Amino acid sequence: MGLPKAAACVAVLLVIYYSLDNQEVMETKASYNHSRGKRQVSATQPSATTINVPMDFDLLLDLTIPVSILPLLRNSLNSISFPFTLNQSLQVLDIQFTTACFPNSTGGLQCTCEDQFAWPCDKCDVYGACSNVTGPTCECINGRPSDGEYCEPITSINPCPTPTPVITTTTAMMTTTKEPMDFDLLLDLTIPVSILPLLRNSLNSISFPFTLNQSLQVLDIQFTTACFPNSTGGLQCTCEDQFAWPCDKCDVYGACSNVTGPTCECINGRPSDGEYCEPITSINPCPTPTPEPMDFDLLLDLTIPVSILPLLRNSLNSISFPFTLNQSLQVLDIQFTTACFPNSTGGLQCTCEDQFAWPCDKCDVYGACSNVTRPTCECINGRPSDGEYCEPITSINPCPTPTPVRTTTNTTTMPNTTMPVTTTTMPNTTTMPNTTTMPVTTTTMPNTTTMPNTTTMPVTTTTMPNTTTMPNTTTMPNTTTMPVTTTTMMPVTTTIMPVTTTTMMPVTTTINELSFVLDIDFDESFNEESNDVFINANRAIQTQCRTPQSSCQLSGFRSGSTIGDYTIRGASLSDTELQAIQTGIFLDLSETYPIIFDSQSSLKLEPTTVISQQEATVTCGPPPANLNLGTNWTAEWRFNNNPISSNEDLYEFSKVNEEAVLTLKRFFGTDIGQYECRLKSGQKIFRERSNKNFTLQEQPLIRLTPLSRQIHCQDMASVEVKLECSVNEPYTVVLRNSTKVLGTGNSISYSFLIPICEKTEHTFTCQVIGRQELKQSTLEITTGAPDCNNDVFGTGNLGQMAFGSCERDEVGERKGVCQEDGLWKEVENNCTLRPVQELLLQSELLNANSLPGFLDTLSDVTVNFTEEVVKSPTNINAIVDILSNVANTPLPINSDLAKDILLTAGVLTTNGSRGTWESLNNGSRNESQTRRSSTFLQSLENITRRITDVSLAIDTPYILLNKTTFTDSFNASFNSSVTIVISEPGEGEKNITVMTFASMHNVLPARDEANSSRFDINGRVVLVQTSIGNIPINNISFTFNLNNTSLVNPQCVFWNFSLFDDRGGWDNEGCMPVEIKNGSVTCNCNHLTSFSILMSPFVNCEVCSLITFIGVGISMASLVICLIIEAVIWRKIRRNTTSYLRHVSIVNIAVSLLIADIWFIIGASISEAPGDNRDACSAATFFIHFFYLAMFFWMLASALLLLYRTVSVFDGGLSKRSMLAIGFSIGYGGPIIIAVITIAATAPSETYTQGKFCWLNFKESLAIIAFVLPALTIVLFHLIILIVVLFKMLRRRAVADSAQAGQRNVLLVIARTLAVLTPLFGLTWGLGIGTLADPENQGIHIAFSFFNSLQGFFILVFGLLLDKKVRSEIAIKSQISGSGTTSTSAGNSSSAFGFLRLWRRGRDGYNISSNDSNVTQSLNPS
Question: Predicted confidence band at 423 (pLDDT cuts at 50, 70, 90)?
């Protein structure tokens, strides 16, 4: 029903929109009048006029909807009655659904006409009819007309002309020909980019003209334009050969290719006017602007090997400037200023080129690495952090010259030594005659990356000063210790190098500790030098990295697959050299073993911040070309070291541009972790890992209050409604109505003022900015006073439904109905905690990777939101569904996962959840929810079957889980509350899983197979599973410690899931109690499942039930007789005030007890009835409680009358009316106060009655005290009054007159009645207390049943028949009724009161004789 209404609403809203737009209420100037409009609408109408003239106009609506809802839309429109009034100023006269276009099997459109509509004849000819043309025109064409026309009414279409048949004559060479007609077709195709070349080649291969059939020929096809997505997410439209974009399009959209001709061939976007590329020959050249030359400087920072530095320097020096790159770009000069490279200490050394130097401050800060022979330095030990480089010498201020220090140097003549060098670069030397030729030595350190745990050895370097040597100078040998990295032998030159001082530096050795990973299981034997793995790995290492300057050694293997560690010791190696060694080892070993190469880069995550349940991707590769993986590799993905298995609902695996892509279709919080990709080709494995995590962003949760509701107003007064529109961080929302924006931000508060009270509707939209999520509220303004009003559902009339918002951090809504009492009743509450709802959605898509994180999150949410979960049926339903989904997912459960499940399940069993579970079990919401407790237990049973640990013990606050193995018999105690013994387990080793619940009685209802709820779960619920398999368990024993030893009638039961239409219930089949002692019950069962003990708070006394129902029947009959007697003698007993008041008390006592007995029978019937009868049971309990109390309070009134008359019998006193008022106030006022207070205090907590047994609760709330305490107090008060009265009457002398004697006689009767009934009733309810104190004593139950059920009989006998006056009046009435009898031969007949007449004659001295003529009586008082 909802979808048709929604479709109708969409149509009506569109009508409103376009009508408002047409009247310029909305800011648009577009006309929407149909070409067939009946009247021309002026676009210049004023926005407000005093008198509104009705105006008709047509609107043309073009909707895009799913094909599936087309029938619903059609039916909805047909169901609307026209004219349809939208508001006071707008009325819809008619809506005509004319045309429906949808894709056909060929990928094009097929446009069909609705009933009574058809296409004009020309459209059928141009587009071709797709249905048989059976009338004057067609109803369906193959395409959508480009002129925007739609189907027209059949009555307005001219029939198609019938073509005149062509008569052909068989005369030779005589034929009739038709004139050919040329027309152009413009095709706009959407195809995959990958088949574009195929389409282009196919079109080029076609020979034109191309004949389709006898009447249609394709003269030419020109492929002009191709548009496809670019890297920024937009479109890039390129022209085919011989086509280009006009100049204006290049300017507007921007050219994406070099503009080398008069126009451009590619633009960044698709023209909105539908234009495409045009032939180059038809395009006017774009005006060529004269470019203004512009000079600019470029700063280049290059990282290159040190060895090619001289080559770079020479290349730059050889270039002639200016150097022309192209017609628009010319290089004026290149200045090479600075070169930085590693020095021997691991830092950087930055030197200046010729004619450049460092400023003085840089020399001071970083330290000069060369002698400062000029006003500044040419080399510093470091790279300036401010990005500065060497400056021209001419622009540097000289450094201050320090005061020179005189030094005397004694030199020793040493023989000259000539040796090979690495690199000779020594400018500005002076050659002297008669000297020994010496090689110039400069040590250049390579760019070496030191691996962890390296050892640096000292290196000796000779620093040669740039000096001029005088003749006859003693020279020392120029000795340099070279590093172990590379040695370049240079020829000896004739450069004379005098040396004055030689500084010896220590030699440095670097140790690089590296490793490789073999994808094989580790074995300790791999570390033996004779093992093949050791031999092959060592050979590969020695082959790849051993040189004269370095040594390599295989250290050994360790676990983690198989990790091989090796060491390279020697001169420093660059990163490139180290990577080359690792690659060589990888390639060498891959011929023998599967080996993993770890990427230096990390996986690419996109986007890094993901909105919950949205899509995310992880990209791996491409692998380096030198690994030789080729292109036929396969990708394997892992998450937190676990393989990601294929799941089309969660993942998509693809390969794009030699990269492996993992697409996470629905991202949840459990998808945050470490990802790993392995690209495999043969035995080569390229591995790449993520070095960062995704960040989860919650979905927007919009809260709009109030939701759609009525707003009542009166007396034409203005109304103000406060709207609240908010969303969770980091989103923002916009609040708007149909005409304008009312506010933006994270939380918006807007006061909407309705200036005039009239029936209108106002719609407000709260939407997330930049997203589609929104909520709408429609306020229906109506006049008059509301029947219901509260903050949740607002105002409303009787029977109206309204919706209310959920609390913050909840999703869903609440539904209420306005009742006759003026209150909203919540009939549906779908509000669910947002994290619980998200977990419910994810639980349907679980796998091995997400399950651990999911269960951890589930337990955290459940424990942290315990109060919200246990008080909400919706939240409990959701978590039960989650556990059911977990149970139905075929994944193994280990101890960690089981603990999370137990923590979650334990929260659902807490005492705080009892009321919620009772609501679910009793079906107060819907029938399916009555199975929730059974589903909950079934899920836990299924989960225990999937636990993989052989043995475990998990102790949580509410559930204890144990799993162990046994071979022969099994005997164990769990939590000191349940003992399990298995005597016949079968052969072999078996395991047993036991789950013990501390408070499962809050979840499972205590209904048995007879659907009786007069039992309590009086022990722990225990779930038992074993792996014995098909071998039946014939003897398993459970010993339960009882929670309440006062309960009786134990039943050993198990939970039968199939009872009561699969709602489940307790069943005792196959289980029986065998021993009851010391507060425990032992049960024997022949099967396994979930077990417990059911016990009743009432003794199983069939005799008691029989006595009760027979006694109540006698009591009710006695009370009816009592009331009849009172009615018969009522006029006689009214002459005496005391007697009158006494009989008033007797009548009210009898009436109260009779009504109480009737409600007792009704309550017993309600208790035995199936289903949830809680309200009826509470009503029965209330009336039983009230009328039983009324009986006692009227007895109290009778006792107070006795006391009052005893004290003031000779003194007049209160009037009859006053005493009657006091009597009724006491008799009914006290009981009603006590009964109302009792139900008001206990009903909210649902502890007024004893479950389904209709009597006051005596366990949780002790409501029974509200009856027992007043009753026993009255009994005690009676005894006190009797003692006082008897004491007074014994001391008082005989009275003087007969009237006072009558009063005295009545008081004696009252005293005698109280003296008998008070102990009797006191004994009765004393026995009632005894049944509570000793519930197993059957004698007390029998005695209580006897005395309690015969209370009416006791009132008849002791309250009425023992009164002499009553008997006298009965005898008189019987004589009068007997005087009119007929005499027969058998003697005189008598009335039904004859037996009383005889009894009266014998006891009270009444002498009654009768004959046929008269009746005489005499009174002889005894």
Answer: very low
Instruction: State the Cα–Cα distance between residues 721 and 163, nearest whole angstrom.
Output: 70
Q: Is residue 338 within 8 Å of residue 351, measured between CB atoms?
A: yes
Alpha helices by DSSP H, 983-1077: 1059-1062
Q: What is the pTM of this model?
A: 0.51
- Taking the C-alpha atoms of residue 225 and residue 267, their distance in angstroms, rounded to an integer, is 11
Query: CA angle at residue 616 from 614 to 619, to 5 degrees?
Result: 170
What string of DSSP letters covers 426-471? --S----SS-------B-----BPPPSS--PPPB--PPPP---PPT
CB 609 within 8 A of CB 616: no
Residue 1144 C-alpha from the chain's centroid? 67
Which value, to the nearest 10 degrees, does the dihedral of the CA atoms of residues 873, 877, 880, 881 take?
-170
Closest to 779 in 3D by CA, of 725, 720, 706: 706
Tell me the C-alpha distance between 786 and 1407, whole Å.
76
Question: What DSSP line would sit under 1335-1348, residue for residue?
Answer: TT-HHHHHHHHHHH
Which range, of 396-400, 601-605, 940-944, 1388-1392, averages the lowest pLDDT?
Answer: 1388-1392
How far apart CA 826 and CA 814 sit, in angstroms, is 7
Q: What band does 480 get if pLDDT is binned at 50, 70 and 90? A: very low
489's torsion region: left (phi>0), alpha (psi -120 to 50) or beta?
beta
User: What pLDDT, on a 0 to 100 scale, did the predictor assign at position 562?
Assistant: 93
- At 1100-1143, the pLDDT tens digits run 566 777 887 788 888 889 889 888 888 888 877 666 777 787 78
* Angle CA 507–508–511, to nearest 5: 145
Spatial separation of the C-alpha atoms in residues 664 and 645, rounded to whole Å? 12
Ordered DSSP codes for 1143-1173: HHHHHHHHHHHHHHHHHHHHHHHHHHSSS--
H/E segment holding residue 874: helix 873-888
CA distance 1117 to 1392: 17
Ranked by mean pLDDT, the top range of 468-477, 721-730, 1257-1266 is 721-730
DSSP codes, 470-484: PTT--------PPPS
